[in-house]
Amino acid sequence: AGCEKEPSSHMWIYILLGNLLRGIGETPITPLGISYLDDFAKEEDVPVYVACLHTIAMLGPMFGFLLGSLCAKLYVDIGFVDLGSITITPHDSRWVGAWWLGFLIGGVTSLLAAIPFCFLPKSLKKPEEANNDKTSYDYSAVIMPCIFQSQLIYPFLSDFYTSLKKVLSNRMYFTFLCCSLLQFSSFIGFLTYKPKYMEQQYGQSTSKSNFLIGLTSLPPVGIGIFLGGLIMKKYKMSIIGATKFAFTMSFLAYTITLLHFFVGCENHVVAGMTVSYE
Fold first, then answer.
1. 21 closest CA partner among 138, 104, 107
2. Which residue ranges traverse the bilayer (predicted)?
3. What is the pLDDT averaged over residues 177-187?
4. What is the mean pLDDT of residues 260-267?
5. Which of 140, 116, 136, 113 lies closest to 126, judged by CA?
6. Which of 15, 203, 213, 219 is least surrounded by Cβ atoms within 10 Å, i.e. has the fewest?
């Protein structure tokens, strides 16, 4: 009983706040970034630009896994302890890698990458031959006053509720939203548990598992997104054509994924779990 004590670290609060701020900063890139491209690019070029945006978004986690693989090889207290006194290796189950180092490197990189956005023009001239029926909307005129003037927050929330209700009433958008939720749920689960499965089933270290996931799983997805954008541009697909194309590719992916049921390994022999103690 004298060796037991309650955990007193509040580090999780800093991680929570950091992820909250990161999410706030990342959110405008996808909705407003795609809207920005859709407003100021030629209509036939938009699929390629959006595909490039999503491809880069997939390459980010790939480099994140590779960075995590590198950080996992470093001891968690690197810079604070004598590494020569560490007697365990990354293959030891007691090893804890320098997980915090990735946050610092990623944060500094994100800060440097955000600087060029400060030099983008507030408004661009639209191509004369395209997007004649589209109107650009200055989101800052709504967002900024709502942040700095509290008396405008309530009207903003009221308008947001009305817009949200109108969007969710669109059957096509709601169906696409449900489909996206199902796809991302399966994809995130795959990325979350596959490294741990590789560690337990194949005896790989955390570093090597992250390295293999980042190198083999994410690049094909990014390449597929980019090729999809090129195909849509080449054949100038309409909404119906794009829907048929997406359905065909999703069905093929589902069919190929069924092959995973035929791949497996025998369970490890664990005393008290898979075999008796005798």
1. 107
2. 46-67, 97-120, 172-191, 211-232, 244-263
3. 82
4. 77
5. 136
6. 203
